[in-house]
Amino acid sequence: MSYPTLFTTSGLKTFAEAVDTERQAQLAKWGDQKHPDGTGAEYYVGMADQARDDVEHAAESLSGPRWALILLEEVYEALAESDPAKLRAELIQAAAVIAAWVSDLDRRPAPEDDRPTGPSASPTAVLLASRCDACRHTLNRHANYAGCTVPLCVCGRFQPPAEGSDQ
Question: Quick one: DSSP state of residue 152?
Answer without folding.
Answer: T
